[in-house]
Amino acid sequence: MRRFRRAMVAVLALALVAGAIYAIVAVLQRSETLVTERCVAVAGSAAYDLATDQAANASLIAAISVQRGLPPRAASIALATAMQESRLRNINYGDEAGPDSRGLFQQRPSQGWGTEAQVMDPVYASNAFYNGLIKVPGYETMEITQAAQAVQRSAFPRAYAQHEGMARAFASALTGQSESSLDCELRMPDAAGDPAAVVDKLTTAFGAQAATVEGRTVRLDVTGPQAWAIAHWAVANAKSLAITQVDIADRTWNREKRNGWTASVAPSEAFTITVSAPTT
Q1: In the 3-class helix/strand/coil scheme, how is 191-230 assigned residue by residue?
Q2: Cα 138 to Cα 170: distance, rounded to the nearest angstrom
Q3: What is the pLDDT of residues 172-218, one digit of tens each?
Q4: pTM summary value
Q5: Backbone phi, psi, residue 193, to 5°
């Protein structure tokens, strides 16, 4: 009888432990499900939200301006334009005013912007917009609406103004003019990241960089505003590239902790982007 009682106690104890583990796992899984994924750029006391796919597109548009050596104002104008035209999404349809409009900037093949395939390519579309913008005399000091309209010839020229705050905040972060000012709240990745894919996407956005892959980490030899432009780009693309941590100088962005940019535990001169490990 005593052995039976001891066995029953042991079984109950195991059941309690298993139940506790199940409850903890369930809570953690539920907390992941409840995360509202978004990206936020801060400018002064104002904060602006974008969905993760919008932020990724914004990061590419801004990165191309950096690659071309354009002033941050160019990125602000481009982001306000793309937000008005497509909500910063690479859509494959137009509207009644422009039925053949396509892509991030709703460029029309019938008006000489390129083929449908070309304007649906975000890299081509961004460069096409900047090619038009730099032909506008004094665009750097124009109101965003005037500069955008000079390129786009929209039927609603004043509409660009409503996106100026968002455009300035994201452009400032994504061109590296403001440090630790862009954060994305994300669920944890469910698959391993590929550091080679990070380098490939980074090269597309910014051009060739001094980058080396060490295990799950991409190490970059970049400083100044371009370093922060790339760091914010990495955060904006963390969802699609399974990036879990970015370390730059004395600051760290950690996807799991979800507390934005914080002081590094062990500050160093290294600039690294780390992707998720394989799941077991």
Answers
A1: CCCCHHHHHHHHHHHHCCCCEEEECCEEEECCCHHHHHHH
A2: 22
A3: 999 999 999 999 999 999 999 999 999 999 999 999 999 999 999 99
A4: 0.87
A5: -85, 165
